[in-house]
Every structure is written in C-alpha cells, then in structure tokens.
Amino acid sequence: MRILALDVGDRRIGVALSDPLGMLAFPLTTIKRATPDTDAAIDAALALAEEHEAAEILVGIPYLMSGRIGAQAHITLEFAQALAERTHIPVIRIDERLSSIQADRMLSQSGAASTRDRGRTDAAAAAVILQSYLDAR
Question: Is residue 111 helix, strand or coil?
C-alpha cells in the first residue's frame, strides 16, 4: 500500500512516496504552485496519487510550536479540505512542525547543497513527514 505525502507551501509542494509495503519514504518530486491556482496544484497531486496508486494522501499541517493554527496552517488546512473534496482517496492531515528544518539538516549532512534547490528540500520535507507517519504506525 503506497502513501503519498505533501508538504504544501505557497510556491511549491514537496511530494514523497512510500515503498509498496508502506515502510520507507522517498522524496518524489516538487509541484510548482501558482498560489491563487489551487486547482492546478490539486490536479497535479491527484495525478501523482493515481499514477502511483496511492491508498492514502498525507498533508503536512505546519502548526505553530504552541500547537495553535497559524496563517500558513490555515491555508494548508483549506488546501487539504479542497483536495479531500476532489478524491475518493483518504486525505490525512498530520502535524509537520520542523519537517523542513529536519530535511535541511539531513540534506546538509549528506553533502547536498539544500539551500540552492528549495524544491529538493520540499520533497525531502515531505519524505520526513511521511517517514514519521510510517514509523508511528
């Protein structure tokens, strides 16, 4: 059972995919996003979910450190709701606090120049979100 994970941002959406057994997460790609055009981003995410036969779609919600919903979390929750309304695939919202920071550190430790390729960092952040979810299961 494959799971697709999304790290939703204003300019890009990082995408990760699990292996068929649902044990390991891998960065997949980045969807470039024109902020006002949520429909195009949702179309792209759903096309990836269909192509990879995803049984679930995770959407990382960037809660504030206090656990409250800030401006970006509110935007991301709206995106997740719009996505859920357009698919039969279960859309699961998951806390993704600090996933981008963790992805930056991992890329830096691996010798990758993460700051030069933000799309790579976004896909890695989606993989961090997904791996956390897989490990908790």
Answer: coil
Q: Is the pLDDT of residue 98 over 80?
A: no
Class of the domain covering 2-136: alpha beta
CA 64 to CA 97: how far, in whole Å? 7
Question: In terms of DSSP H, where are the helices of 27-66?
Answer: 38-51
Where residue 34 falls among pLDDT bands split at 50, 70, 90? confident
Alpha helix (H) residue ranges in the chain:
38-51, 71-85, 99-109, 118-136
**Lowest mean pLDDT across 44-48, 49-53, 80-84, 103-107:** 103-107
Quote the tokens at residue 118.
Answer: 């933000």
* Residue from 38, 72, 56, 81 nearest 1 by CA: 56
Phi, psi of 31 (to 5 degrees): -100, 120
Could you tell me the pTM of the whole model?
0.86
One-letter identity of residue 113: A
Residues 6+ apart with CB under 8 A from 90: 55, 56, 57
